[in-house]
Amino acid sequence: MKRFLLFFVLVFPFFVSAQEQFSVYFESNKHETTKKQSEILNNWIAANKESKVVAISGFTDEDGTNAHNDSLSQRRVNFIHNIILKSNVKIREDFKTRSFGETHKQSKNKAENRKVVIYYILPKDLARENEILGIKPIAVPIAEIVPIEEEDMHFPVNATLEEKVALAKPGTRIVIKNIFFYQNSFGMMPTSKPAMDELIDVMTKNPNMVIEIQGHICCIDADRRHLSLDRAKQIRRVLEGNGVAQKRVKVKGFGVSHPKYPIPEANEEQALANRRVEIMILSK
C-alpha cells in the first residue's frame, strides 16, 4: 500500500534525544539479517559492550499491506532485540512497542527503508542517561526508600563512582573509599582529596541528585561523641564549599550500629570495612 511507512519501535516511553544510533538493513520481506549485516551488527556489539540501548526502531518499505508491514517491522525489532539480549549489551528494562503509521517519510531508495535503528548511550554519557532521555526525577519520600547494599548491585569490577551512580537506584548505598580522618577527630586528612574531588565531580554532573552521607566508625562499643555524624557533616561542608547545595546532602551517623563485621573486629581489614563513609542515593 503506497504512501504509508509502518514501523514498530521498542522504546522507552519518553522523548529520546542526544543519543547515538546504529542501523541494520534487511532484504525485502525478510526479518532476519543477511550474513554481511550480521557481521556488521556483531562488530557493533563487540565495540559497545558497555553502552546501553535505549530504543530499537523497526522500519519497512511501502510494499505490501499495512497489516503485513506492521507484522514485519515488529518481527525485525524482535529479531535484533533477541540478539542484543543474548550479547549482554546493556538494555533498558522498561521498553514499549509502538506503531507510527505514515508520520515518517520514506527514502526514495527502498533498501534504505528496510532497517532497524538501534539508539544507544555511550558509557561516557551514562551518568546523564535520565537527562538525555528527558526524564525528570521523581522525589521518593525517604521513609519509603528501601536500602540496597552495594554488593547487591553487582557493579562492574573497578567501576568508578560516576559509573556506580549511573547504575544505582534510589536506596543504593555506595562506599566512598579513601576518605580518611585523623584519629578520634572529624578532621579530614589531605590524602582524602582525590576521593572528595571525585564525589564533588559526580554531584556536579548530576545536579538533581540528592544523597545521604552515612558515617560509620569501628573498634568501640558506642559512638558517645557522635563522631560518625560529625564526619558526615564535615564531608557535607566540603561539598557545600564546592558549590553543592546543602539541600541536596542529608547526613546521618550510624556509629557502630551497622558494622560489616562483628565488634571487636578480628583484624585491621575488618576494622577498615567497619570504619567507612557511604552515600545513599535518595533521588537522581
Automatic annotation (TrEMBL):
<dbReference type="InterPro" id="IPR006665">
    <property type="entry name" value="OmpA-like"/>
</dbReference>
<feature type="domain" description="OmpA-like">
    <location>
        <begin position="168"/>
        <end position="284"/>
    </location>
</feature>
<protein>
    <submittedName>
        <fullName>Outer membrane protein, OmpA family</fullName>
    </submittedName>
</protein>
<feature type="signal peptide">
    <location>
        <begin position="1"/>
        <end position="18"/>
    </location>
</feature>
<dbReference type="Pfam" id="PF00691">
    <property type="entry name" value="OmpA"/>
</dbReference>
<dbReference type="InterPro" id="IPR050330">
    <property type="entry name" value="Bact_OuterMem_StrucFunc"/>
</dbReference>
<keyword id="KW-0472">Membrane</keyword>
<keyword id="KW-0732">Signal</keyword>
<dbReference type="InterPro" id="IPR036737">
    <property type="entry name" value="OmpA-like_sf"/>
</dbReference>
